[in-house]
Amino acid sequence: MILKEKIRVELEKITNESDVFVVDIKTNPNSIVIFLDSKIGIKLIECSGIHKKLYNALGEEIEKFDMQISSPGLTAPFKVLEQYKKNIEKDVQIIEKNGIQYIGKLLLVNDLTVTLQLRDKEKTIQELELSSIAKTKLIF
User: Fold this and answer.
1) Spacing of C-alpha 89 from chain mean position
2) Contact at 8 Å (CB) between 78 and 128?
3) What is the topology classification, in CATH, of domain 3-70?
4) Which of 14, 22, 42, 137 is the most buried (most CB within 10 A)?
5) How distant is the alpha carbon of residue 82 from its chain centre?
6) pLDDT (tens digit, 9 = 90+) per residue, 66-119?
7) What is the value of pTM for the model shown?
């Protein structure tokens, strides 16, 4: 199992009794950067605790890396389904793979689609397949 997969497995064990979820794991020869989130956001103290548990679980395998754990930030594009679910009732910008852009309130999310109420005069309801989406981010 490669390092990234081992980290993901351990993170799932560590966070399985909380609402914390893994957004992304980035590795390079010198560092590991882990982005975590939860339904109510993740605090620095939670990141620190998870860092310690992960280091204790993987020890020698990760000790040569500079490891950072943080939230992805409010302006980062969504990477996982849980981010869509967390942001229901918030305004988002979605760009489909074909380049079409939508701006509206995220109303519903399931494993296959998202539903938006667009910011047009008619407040049109638009359903999009998750597989057609290139990028989604919060707008303020």
Assistant:
1) 17
2) no
3) GMP Synthetase; Chain A, domain 3 (3.30.300)
4) 42
5) 7
6) 999 999 999 999 999 999 999 999 999 999 999 999 999 999 999 999 999 999
7) 0.90
